[in-house]
From TrEMBL:
PANTHER family: PEPTIDASE_M16_M DOMAIN-CONTAINING PROTEIN, PROTEIN CBG16894
Native source organism of the sequence: Caenorhabditis elegans
Highest classification ranks of the organism: Eukaryota, Metazoa, Ecdysozoa, Nematoda, Chromadorea
UniProt superkingdom: Eukaryota
Designated name of the protein: Peptidase_M16_M domain-containing protein
């Protein structure tokens, strides 16, 4: 399997997306087949609303389960890397998986070539 993108938080292969440090408390990786993705949202961490994010686990304001990133939801308490972004994918009717990406341009270039043309891609995260 060829790896098209990889960083500390995620690995993108030709057929699957591997979200690192996803499961609590084991930090096991979550594997998502690319054909299962129906919607993808992404936004820079600096502009992303903190009510939709969480350091790890299910966000209370949105039905997103976030993989571990201790600096994601700290806001003004700790400087966040301006190059990091949050990504949320919808898999099936009720499962939304959230994770961080270090280089959003490189990640999006790689995943756009692999996703089905029916997948909706939104450049901000504003979920109920």
């Amino acid at each position: 399997m060829s790896i098209l993108y990889e960083d500390e938080y995620v690995r993108l292969g030709q057929f699957s997306l591997f979200v690192k440090n996803y499961h609590f408390p084991t930090k096991k990786t979550k594997t998502v087949t690319l054909e299962a993705i129906t919607t993808l949202w992404f936004e820079e961490q600096e502009t992303c609303k903190s009510v939709t994010t969480k350091i790890w686990g299910k966000a209370s304001a949105a039905s997103i389960y976030w993989a571990l990133d201790v600096k994601r939801a700290l806001g003004g308490l700790s400087p966040r890397s301006p190059s990091k972004s949050n990504v949320v994918i919808e898999v099936g009717a009720k499962l939304r998986v959230g994770f961080s990406v270090e280089n959003i341009d490189e990640f999006m270039d790689a995943i756009r070539t692999l996703l089905d043309y029916h997948v909706i891609i939104v450049n901000y995260i504003n979920l109920p």
